[in-house]
Design goal:
The chain has about 210 residues and is mainly alpha-helical. It has a single domain, classed as Arp2/3 complex 21 kDa subunit ARPC3 (Orthogonal Bundle). About 75% of the residues lie in helices and about 5% in strands. It has a 3-stranded antiparallel sheet with strand order 1-3-2. A hairpin with a 2-residue loop joins strand 2 and strand 3. It is globular, with a radius of gyration of 18 Å.
Length: about 210
């Protein structure tokens, strides 16, 4: 069954071919798969944040939530494409705020930029080294290094922004924000990367069967 969506939306995403039929734009199988995968990983990210919010902001809750969110971002960027990962990076914190999961609105842009950073770095690392002519063990090692690099970059962006950028726009940054935007981001980003490395190969096999 074909699903009708706005033409401009598809062109901007560049996420699949589409066809005209009597002036209407329809999603083909490739685009339908992109939407389905993006929706699935976005749901994972939101559910993880919802679970974390029920844990009262405990460090353990942040580790679980952050790791699952980062895994969803990374897996989406690798298996569904950069546009999918970036879409989730943009939508996840915004929807979390609208649902009352995220309480501090000024932090949303920082979270978005950090999310996009980890998507770009990890997707590039995986796509580049998984296709490189080298021993499998070296491929996995370099991919792991890419995952860690993405986590560290996200941590640096969010930590520096919480310390120096947010105070320019708000009178006082909650200490909990500064704390959660620091070392825990590196930890959860790395764990999310490891989880992604375990799940991506299976998901890519399923994706190839669907094509």
């Amino acid at each position: 069954m074909n699903l009708m969506v706005p033409a401009n939306f598809l062109r901007k995403l560049n996420c699949g071919n589409f066809k005209n039929e009597r002036g209407k734009i329809y999603m083909n199988n490739k685009t339908t798969a992109w939407v389905a995968r993006t929706g699935l990983f976005l749901a994972v990210a939101l559910i993880a944040q919802l679970i974390g919010s029920q844990m009262g902001g405990s460090p353990f809750g942040q580790i679980i939530t952050g790791s699952l969110v980062n895994m969803a971002l990374i897996v989406a960027g690798i298996t569904a494409g950069i546009s999918s990962g970036i879409s989730i990076a943009l939508l996840s914190p915004c929807l979390a705020f609208l649902l009352g999961i995220m309480k501090f609105a000024p932090a949303i842009p920082i979270v978005i930029v950090g999310n996009i950073a980890i998507v770009l770095v990890t997707a590039f690392a995986y796509n580049f080294y998984s296709g490189a002519q080298m021993k499998p063990v070296l491929q996995k090692l370099f991919i792991l290094i890419g995952m860690i690099a993405g986590a560290l970059l996200k941590c640096a962006i969010m930590w520096i922004s919480a310390l120096y950028l947010l105070p320019l726009f708000v009178a006082k940054v909650p200490p909990a924000i500064i704390s959660s935007f620091s070392i825990p981001q590196a930890i959860t980003g790395t764990i999310g990367g490891l989880l992604a490395m375990l799940t991506v190969p299976s998901l890519l096999k399923i994706k190839r069967k669907d094509i």
